[in-house]
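note to self: dont lose this again. the chain is below, predicted strucutre after it. 250 aa total, dont forget to put it in the shared folder this time
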Amino acid sequence: RLRRRSAALLEAESMVGDAVELLNQDQDWPESKRLVLEHAAEMLHHGRAETLENWLDEFPESILEQDPWLQYWRAACRFLTSQRESRLLYEEAFALFQSKEPGDREGLLLACAGAMDSIIHELDDFSLLDRWIEDTGRLLANTQWKAGKDGPTEAEARATVSLFISLVLRQPHHPDIRQWSERARKLSGELTATMSRMSAQLLVAINLNYTGQFGQAQDLVTEMRTMCESPDVPPLALASMKDIESMHYR
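---
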């Protein structure tokens, strides 16, 4: 009782890490899961993937294997250190999201985007993109592409950008690639999470440089330079940004 009360007081004071530690000591997994899922996106946004992964690793496998969101965040934590492991975890999360009734469309789209990004950054076997191109295209088929208040969700924007880059790398002759190109350019600027937006725009900038659209590439480079001033941008994104700049000015 004392640990649980202490955890509640720590949460109220925004000391989430200490609260999770106490809850895990008490094996209060439902309450710990609530806290972890509420703060997972924020943790990644501030570059604390290792801490978040440590929290998740303390959960029993029986819980992790049944919760798609816990698997999704495990995959996101592994992305910067092991794209292959990240991809496999995204596959597990996708399967779990599919097994739920009704299916979680946002979760499915985020798992698709994560899996495609992992394959792209792993630079190994792009044929693995084929199934995700099909699944993502099907999920996005009925999306309304309007900007502003009624615009796409974060998950739709991320999945659209990842789908377009996957088409460029794997299916450049896809009949709808021009449509996805326009959607990706538009939606990459509407992502709210710094890391998600940075990753998306890096991928779009690569394509713009390869296809000779240097004016639009320059606009993206300028915007990303400003974003790189944030302390939340991880080293991998900064290194990729320098690579894009060197490619653009070459």
